[in-house]
Amino acid sequence: MVLSKRIARFNKVATNRVLGRAAPRLPGMAMVVHQGRRSGRRFETPVNVFERPDGYVIALTYGPDADWVRNILAASGCEIVTKGRTIRLTDPRVVHDEDRTDMPKRARFILARFGVSDFLYLRRAD
Questions:
Q1: Which InterPro entries does this chain map to (predicted)?
Q2: How many helices (H) and strands (E) does the chain have?
Q3: How many domains does the chain divide into?
Q4: How far, in Å, CA of 111 to CA of 98, rounded?
Q5: Which segments of the chain are extended strands (E)?
Q6: Given this model, what pLDDT does residue 28 score?
Q7: Are residues 122 and 89 in contact, defined by beta-carbon separation less than 8 angstroms?
């Protein structure tokens, strides 16, 4: 059971506005900066990120069909702002992993409780 569309709408309107200011500076969080597929507009979405040796992985708590995920896939990348730095990411790929292999132990447990098993992997562009 991935988080519902109703929760997603609430978060988009309320929670993301509050988190949006803090996410780029909080550990384990980032602001994903992506471009709309049709509108070309710039969007910012706060997410939990997990650093890997070659880039980052994001748990897709709303599933792989979320607009921001589709925008990143269509553009073949995005930027994230985390720990006060802007990082260009490329080669996005959605991976279905029931074992949540690349997640820290605590995150694995929480994601399993919500049925999250899809992840967005991104590689550093530099």
A1: F420H2_quin_Rdtase, Split_barrel_FMN-bd
A2: 4, 7
A3: 1
A4: 10
A5: 29-35, 42-48, 50-52, 55-59, 77-82, 85-96, 118-124
A6: 79
A7: yes
Question: For residue 103, what are its two tokens?
Answer: 């997640």
Return all residues near 92 (Cβ < 8 A) that are at least 6 apart. 72, 73, 76, 77, 78, 120, 121, 122
72, 91 contact by CB (below 8 A): no
Closest CA to 46 of 34, 55, 37, 35: 34
Q: What is the DSSP letter of 116?
A: -
Q: What is the pLDDT of residue 83?
A: 87
* Chain mean pLDDT for the chain: 85
SS3 97: coil
Q: Taking the model in full, what pTM does it have?
A: 0.83
CATH number at residue 106: 2.30.110.10
Spell out the residues 6+ positions from residue 25 whose beta carbon is closer than 8 angstroms to its own.
Answer: 83, 84
Q: Are 17 and 9 in contact (CB under 8 A)?
A: no
